[in-house]
């Protein structure tokens, strides 16, 4: 499989928008999730570890899952994440991890996964009973968000009601959507949601 984030990985962390989004999203997830020092967290589509870095001081361990070796190389090179955040280059829908997590969090990765049903089903199978999800992505947009480079982009954002239906299908409850952020990108306006829920 080719690494679609190989080039982006090089300068990803220095992009102002990536830093802004991750700090806003990190703060919002931190306010919503009761983190504690025994938690094992999966960061799905962790990339270079911007979200993991915010959460790491509050939990026991983070498994940072991504299919881009280049993005994970950036993550594993960060000294501050050592012994806490572990990169795993694996497609968990094809090769599940033989472990159950207390939380799965994800920022701006779900729109890169074609089959959302299968992804949410996979999240459900990787969670303990009563465990949580905290997922951030873009609300439905007109395709302009990735108009210059849409390889590996399968969704023009997400409709909240459609995503709620999928979450209910895989036995999530206490489903709550909040607007995580309004942001400008190349002269257009977008919004991002944070959805939290617990696994029955
Ligand atoms: C826009 S980046 C977001 C990275 C990071 N979460 C952040 O907020 O900075 C999307 C990430 O999702 C990853 N990704 C795409 N498809 C994936 C899959 N099937 N499984 C795991 N990661 C995936 C990409 O490789 C990329 O690192």
Task: Describe the 3D structure.
- With 200 residues, this protein is α/β, with parallel strands linked by helices.
- The protein has helices at residues 6-11, 16-32, 50-55, 69-76, 116-125, 160-169; strands at 40-44, 61-66, 85-89, 101-107, 127-138, 172-185, 188-199.
- It has a single domain, classed as Rossmann fold (3-Layer(aba) Sandwich), CATH 3.40.50.
- The chain has six helices and seven strands, in the order ααβαβαββαβαββ.
- β4 (101-107), α5 and β5 form a beta-alpha-beta unit.
- The protein is globular.
- S-adenosylmethionine binds next to α2, α3 and β2.
- S-adenosylmethionine is lined by residues 5, 18, 22, 44-47, 50-51, 65-68, 71, 91, 107-109, 112-113.
Biggest β-sheet: strands ordered side by side in the sheet: 3-2-1-4-5-7-6
* Radius of gyration, whole Å: 16 Å
The geometry reads as globular
Quaternary organisation of the protein chains = single chain
Largest sheet: 7 strands, mixed
Superfamily (CATH H level) name: Vaccinia Virus protein VP39
> Which cofactors or ions or other ligands sit in this model?
S-adenosylmethionine
Overall structural domain count: 1
Number of helices: 6
Please estimate the helix content.
Answer: 25-40%
Find the structural class using helix and strand composition: alpha/beta
Instruction: Report the average pLDDT across residues.
Output: 95
CATH architecture: 3-Layer(aba) Sandwich
Distance between the termini: 35 Å
Task: Provide the CATH top-level class.
Answer: Alpha Beta
* Record field, number of beta strands: 7
The helix/strand series, from N terminus to C terminus, equals: HHEHEHEEHEHEE
> What portion of the residues fall into strands of 2 or more residues?
25-35%
Write down the CATH topology.
Rossmann fold
Weakly predicted, low-confidence segments: none
């Amino acid at each position: 499989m080719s690494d679609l984030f190989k080039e982006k990985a090089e300068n990803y962390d220095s992009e102002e928008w990536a830093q802004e989004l991750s700090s806003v999203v990190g703060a919002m997830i931190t306010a919503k999730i009761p983190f504690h020092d025994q938690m094992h967290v999966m960061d799905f589509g962790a990339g270079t570890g911007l979200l993991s870095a915010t959460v790491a001081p509050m939990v026991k361990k983070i498994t940072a899952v991504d299919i881009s070796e280049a993005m994970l190389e950036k993550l594993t090179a960060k000294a501050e994440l050592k012994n806490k955040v572990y990169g795993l280059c694996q497609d968990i829908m094809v090769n599940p991890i033989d472990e159950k997590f207390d939380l799965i969090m994800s920022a701006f990765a779900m729109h890169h996964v074609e089959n959302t049903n299968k992804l949410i089903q996979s999240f459900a199978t990787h969670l303990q009973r009563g465990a949580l999800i905290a997922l951030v992505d873009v609300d439905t947009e007109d395709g302009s968000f990735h108009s210059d480079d849409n390889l590996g982009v399968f969704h023009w954002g997400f409709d909240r009601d459609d995503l709620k239906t999928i979450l209910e299908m895989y036995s999530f409850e206490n489903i709550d959507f909040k607007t995580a952020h309004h942001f400008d990108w190349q002269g257009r306006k977008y919004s991002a949601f944070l959805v939290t829920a617990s696994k029955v």
